[in-house]
Structures are given as structure tokens and as C-alpha cells.
Write a structure and sequence with these properties.
By secondary structure, this protein is α+β, with helices and mostly antiparallel strands. It is built from three helices and five strands, in the order βααββββα. The model has no long low-confidence stretch (mean pLDDT 92).
Amino acid sequence: MSKPEFRWRLRVFYEDTDAGGVVYYANYLKFMERARTEWLRSLGFEQAKLRDELGLLFAVRAVDVQYRSPARLDDVLEVTATMDKAGGASLVFVQQVRRENAVLCEGIVKIACLDEASFKPRPLPHVLQEALSKGTE
């Protein structure tokens, strides 16, 4: 059974590109970050509220990215996020940046769940675990 894929669309702005009008490589990571944030929001969780109400932060622990083809100024892109694994204090996402049917960039992003005060790993709150399991069935 395949896992559900969250999709988020964006347009490439001038600020996303280098002098040649090509998306700067680090901006693909920003696009992926935004897609994960919007995925959480679609499940009813805003990161500011998780921080303020639960003392919970997410931090990228590791990224493996493959760049295949460039995106350019004014392209409309679709960024996907699929939660591949959920551990006690971690999440693993498989993500892609696409233009139409072409995969431009893909990556595996490992996220740590941290306590806001100590920055030490902490278990995902039960309410979040429950929503994540429903959102990935």
C-alpha cells in the first residue's frame, strides 16, 4: 500500500534564483521545508502553537538530496511530502520538487522532535502521533 503524498504548489520568484534565472540549490530545501510545514498545518497543527502550547520543536537532523534538473524563474512547481517513517522522537520524509511530470529534485529528510527548553529529543505527543497515523493511512 502506498503512503499518501501531500502536495503544495509554488511559483519561482526572482529572489529564488541566481543571476542566470535558475533556482539556487539551497532554495529547494526551503521549498521542502514549506511543504512539510503546510502538511502539518493541513493536519491541524501549526508549528508556533506546537512550540507555545506543547514546548515542541522540529529540527532537521539529516538531508540527502539529489538534484536532477533546474527550475527557472516563473516556473510553477509542486513540492511533495510523504512521511515514510515515524519513530518515538523522529520523522522521515521522502520529498520531491516537480515541474509538471518531471522530478527536478528529490530528497530524504530526517526530522528530530525536540524539547523547546533543552533542545533534547523528546517523544512526539500522543495527539500528534494519532493525527500522523490517521494522515498516513
